Amino acid sequence: MAAENAAEHGQTAGEYIVHHLTHLQSSTPKGVADLSVLNFDSLFFSIVLGVVACWLMWLAARKATSGVPGRFQAAVEILVEMVDQQAKGIVHNAQSRKFVGPLALTIFIWILMLNAMDLLPVDLLPYLWGQAYTATGGDPHHAYLRVVPTADLSVAMGFSVSVLLICLYYNIKIKGLGGWVHELFTAPFGNHWALYPFNFAMQIIEFVAKTVSHGMRLFGNMYAGELIFLLIALMGGAWTLSATGILLALGHIIAGTAWAIFHILIITLQAFVFMMLTLVYVGQAHDHH
Length: 289
Description:
The protein is mainly alpha-helical. The N and C termini lie far apart (about 60 Å). It has one domain (about 1-285). The radius of gyration is 23 Å and the shape is globular. About 75% of the residues lie in helices and about 0% in strands. The chain has helices at about 1-10, 15-20, 40-65, 70-90, 95-115, 125-135, 155-185, 195-235, 245-285.
């Protein structure tokens, strides 16, 4: 399908990849940090999958019984217990865990579902969207659609900034506004007026570094995975009725299958790592220096 679409629209391999990596946006960005531009595709899939994630958790809670659990209930119970154990080991405040535990569970399931969109055939949803877009009189060359929200830097950084805001909330809640401000100027080097600027600078650098690395780790891994799937699709799209073409087709099937199986580990691991770092950062917000 990749080669057929590229040939039909007169695209080169590079243009095919660029087309697949272009968002359906509200307007043309005027810069890298143009906050007036909305990525409609990322918003749509994030909201829809977020609703589905909440519905699945609600369904599990509604169908929970004290008797022998079914497979779905057993799987959810294992997941909930795993997250609860991790939360207890990191966030020692029992009152905070009433919010942090469900938050971590929601983050894990939501990001896992967003990441799992990468397992869909790369041309499936863009092709359907292109057909619908063309049917309404639109130019198929501008029928952009990206289906992996976590491969969008704005979504990944949105998650990490949300975690930062939660950490700031708990810093103030647990330590008090005065206690937290005092910590900003006295840790990590000590309580001395000459060290206040250095302490404050280190604290700000720590907050920024944790937030940026938190989001960039998720974005980088999912973006790379998406790009590899596109390259594998091009390999299959280049097949012909020749020895080289048949080898390309076989390579496409083998590489696609192997990468999809391996990518299941990646999408799960990235969701787990993001959840664990959320717990760690919230736990650090409870620590006094």
